[in-house]
Amino acid sequence: MSNEYQICVVMYCARTEKLQPNKDTVFFRDGLRRIDFVLSYVDDKDGERKQERRKEFETNLAKIGLELETEDKTESKDQKTYFLKVHAPWEVLAKYAEILHIKVPFKKSDIPHRHDAPFEWLSYPFRLPENIMHPVPEHFTYPFNKDKKDFFLIEDKDTFFPPSTRNRIVYYILTRCPYYKEDRKEKDKTGIKRLLSNGTYTTAFPLHDCRYWKRGRNSDCESERFNLYKHWARFLCFYKEQPLNLIRKYYGEKIGIYFAWLGFYTEMLFFAAVMGVICFVYGLLSYEDNITSKEICDPEKGGTILMCPLCDQKCLFWTLNSTCLSSWQSHLFDNEGTIFFAIFMGIWVTLFLEFWKRRQARLEYEWDLVDFEEDQQQLQTRPEFEIQCTGRRLNKITQVQPSFVSLLIPQIVKFIAYRLAVYAAFASIIKDPLRKIQFVGRFITPQLATSVTASCINFVIIMILNFLYERVAVWITDMEIPKTHLEYENRLTTKMFLFQFVNYYSSCFYVAFFKGKFVGYPGHYKYMFGRSSRLRNEECDPGGCLIELTTQLVIVMAGKQMCGNIQEALLNWWNSRRTRHNPETQYSRWEQDHVLLNFGQLGLFYEYLEMVIQFGFITLFVASFPLAPLLALFNNILEIRVDAWKFTTQFKRPVATKARNIGSWQEILNAVAILSVVTNAFIMAFTSDMIPRMVYLYAYSQDSSMRGYINNSLSVYQINQIPKPNMPDERNFCVILCGVVFFRYRDYRYPPGHEEEYKHTMQFWHILAAKMAFIIIMEHVVFVVKFFVAWMIPDVPSGVKARIKRERYLIQEYLHNYEVERLKIQLSASFITEPILSNRAKRKTSTLICPL
After folding, report:
1. Tens digit of pLDDT for each residue in 513-561?
2. Phi and psi dihedrals of 39, rounded to 5?
3. How far is CA 452 from CA 441, 552, 556, 818, in A?
């Protein structure tokens, strides 16, 4: 190729680029000024009024010092959307950086890093490149001050404030800027939030730095979004560490601290999952040694024991061996290893919370949040407060909260009533007392059918009510009109968790602590709505209620996680199709981001809520299902990458916000951790059959084995003493004709003919005393260990404390030296200036005297 031809090609390409500028950029048309924020709007029938608002708003933004550039709708792909690009020049950034007390670097840190620990090489396969894990070098920082510009490391004013800081400053200005004329001071006409709510602007967002699937073409522009997608958001990176420093740099500390917490929680779940699997394997290995289940399934033993009908009239007499399957299943989770697992989880949750405090303290130091109080964006007064609270507040609405929580009570009552009614329906299907329902090649009992269907329907109701309760919680919080964003979020967190706590856990609490506890005994049964309702309180089968609690927990927990993941996958898939229908070469950077989902102020709130609800499942009721931590572990490994993918590909870039911790969620986790010790102790004592078996083994067994336990744990009742309302219908009267005189029921009462007929035996009181003793001992052991562990593990690592003190000392020393040097320069300048001024004065005097 000739030189002349090459020159012609270059000249042609230059002319073409000039005529068709690249729109996939984060700069103004001049290619110099960076786009810090984008506002979009469309013309509609109410255009004149909105146009006036926009004009005043943009005029006031210009008066503040922001620079604006508009993209006409003819330049956009849909031919109807205008884009207003906002740039903050150095003067504006410097002014508001000082107002917001933004810390900036003034000297590279010379504090040595920790040396690698032994066996550090084991973590090499899980590491990411150094430039991804640590995208910026460590510096000493200090709040920016315009009067000390030469104190800070300002090499280039255009890049001194990173994009996340720039969009944070601009957003602060946008939320405070009025859109009224100077001669009219209308307090309610302030801020971009009001303009978005009334439709003046459609969206407001900072730009992503590049396309996530391709590195940015401009060498002056970062490609952090591409790096996040490549090293973090893809599922194939599930085994890699998270680039927390890059996440923090791109999205801000608030989002960074969420992913740090979620990652740490997932790491700790690994140890709980391993212990749960060991407990489950122990149940499998001891499966054949389960004498109790063998007696239940034995036709010569369990097959000859006739049991009391579990409801009035419609329910039939049934043989004990019909619960053979549930008895074997119950052993998998209700065995000796479950006690140790429950104690382990009580200690695990303490270690998790204490070690998280240490990890959080380390992040506070590394992310320069030690002296940080709260983000100005969180502490600033909400526009809604300024609009609605023109004077003093009339009353507090927080008293409304308990009444709305009471809305959940009907749901709980309906759930229990359903179980009672459906059990009778299933039981009436079985016309043969020895026959079971066959379903998909398996035999199931009315108890199991009722438990599964009730759990499934209850889960559907839970998901429907979630939609209602979320809006009720938001409505109540809005009525309270909190002053700051932080106060609003904390109040909403408390209300939402109370709603979700009752909504998700009420059915598990019922099965664990109420079912089978208030039944009465034959002839003296207790009813839910009185005897006329015929809804007799449910009983636990001889295998205990633990397997039903396990079923309830698995369906609700696994169903919630599965529905959440499916919902997110479908939403993200649909949004991906919607946003990628145009070629990116003809698609500007602001248009690509415009069609993405909005990341609202409460975006992280729902992510935290989902994980905290899961945390409650694996701690409050984990004694009934040791595999719950394993399910949570698998879900969280997927959750981290799904959330990362959403943030990187599906959401507009959120405004960077600072946060030093996880906020009020920390207190909620602490409360759940304490409550979990109590609930697991009661589950082991009153829901599990472990304590009665141990009392029988050590106090009542003839041969120090579990032989005869089933016969010992069932009381006797005479059939002809059954009241007519409790008696099954004529279909089942054959048991009397066949010569059967007695039937059995689960309790410890004296048999008919005894001087204390149908009163509790001494064994009942022994078991009750053992249960109470177990609860007291377990709670005290776990709580003592918890407090000891909390005392032994300091919240802030000693190394971090030392580095904080060292850094504070060095900062003070550097500041002192800077002020001394500055004073010397000022003094030397004054000494030079004084002789010059005196000489000038003398010359002036001599000039005046000479003519005389």
Report:
1. 888 788 888 888 888 766 666 677 777 765 567 888 888 888 888 888 8
2. -115, 140
3. 17, 7, 11, 73
DSSP state of 759: S
pLDDT at residue 793 tops 70 = yes
* pTM (two decimals): 0.85
Boundaries of domain holding 367: 241-692+773-796
Spatial separation of the C-alpha atoms in residues 387 and 377, rounded to whole Å: 18
Could you tell me the two tokens for 718? 């005479």
| DSSP code, position 597 | B
Task: Report the pLDDT value the prediction gives residue 769, as an integer from 0 to 100.
Answer: 95
- For 698, how many CA atoms within 13 A lie in the half-sphere containing its CB? 8
Alpha carbon 392 to its chain centroid, in Å, reads 35
User: Residue 397: is its pLDDT beyond 90?
Assistant: no
Neighbours of 405 (CB within 10 A): 17
In order, the DSSP letters of 632-649 are: HHHHHHHHHHHHHHIIII
> Hey, what amino acid is at 321?
N
The single residue listed with the structure tokens 């490391």 is 153
Cα 830 off chain centre by? 61
Token readout for 577 is 């199709």
User: DSSP for 536-601?
Assistant: BPP---TT-SHHHHHHHHHHHHHHHHHHHHHHHHHHHHHHHHHHSSS-GGGS-HHHHHHTSBP--T
- Domain assignment present for residue 737? The answer is no
CB distance 169 to 93 below 8 Å:
yes
Whether 507 is in a domain gets the answer yes
Question: Which H helix or E strand runs over 509?
Answer: helix 485-513
Could you give the 3-state DSSP secondary structure of residue 691? helix
pLDDT of residue 41: 93
Rounded CA gap, 16 and 200, in Å?
Answer: 36
The lowest-confidence range among 86-95, 336-345, 359-368, 579-588 is 579-588
Strands 520-521, 524-525: parallel, antiparallel or unpaired by DSSP? antiparallel
Q: Give me the amino acid identity at 259.
A: F
Angle at 397 between CA 393 and CA 400, to 5 degrees: 165
Identity of the residue numbered 226:
F
Residue 387 burial class via C-beta count within 10 angstroms: exposed 0-12, middle 13-18, buried 19 and up: middle
Is 461 part of any domain? yes
Provide the 8-state DSSP code for 444. Answer: E
Contact 700, 361 (CB under 8 A): no
For residues 735 and 305, give the distance between their C-alpha atoms in angstroms, rounded to a whole number.
12
pLDDT tens-digit map of 813-830: 888 888 888 888 878 877
Q: Which of 297, 288, 305, 310 is nearest to 711 (CA)?
A: 305
Q: How many CB atoms lie within 10 A of CB 803?
A: 19
Three-state SS for 350?
helix
d(CA 622, CA 537): 26
Sign, CA dihedral 520-524-530-536, equals positive
Q: Is the pLDDT of residue 436 over 60?
A: no
Instruction: Give start and end residues of each alpha helix (H) in 367-484.
Output: 376-379, 383-388, 400-405, 408-429, 446-480
Q: DSSP class of residue 704?
A: S
Instruction: Give the model's confidence band at 490: pLDDT under 50 very low, under 70 low, under 90 confident, else very high.
Output: confident
Q: What is the largest CA-CA distance in the chain?
A: 152
Instruction: Give me the number of domains the chain comprises.
Output: 1
CB 232 within 8 A of CB 247: yes
85 in any annotated domain: no
**Residue 58 and residue 36 in contact, taking contact as beta carbons nearer than 8 Å:** no
Paired residues of 745 in beta bridges? 715
Residue located via tokens 């929580």: 405
DSSP 42-98: E--TTHHHHHHHHHHHHHHHHHHT-EEEEE-GGGSTTSSEEEEEEE--HHHHHHHHH
Read off φ and ψ for residue 639, nearest 5 degrees: -60, -40
**Rounded distance, CA 202 to CA 84, Å?**
11
- C-alpha angle with apex 793: 788 to 795, nearest 5 degrees? 125
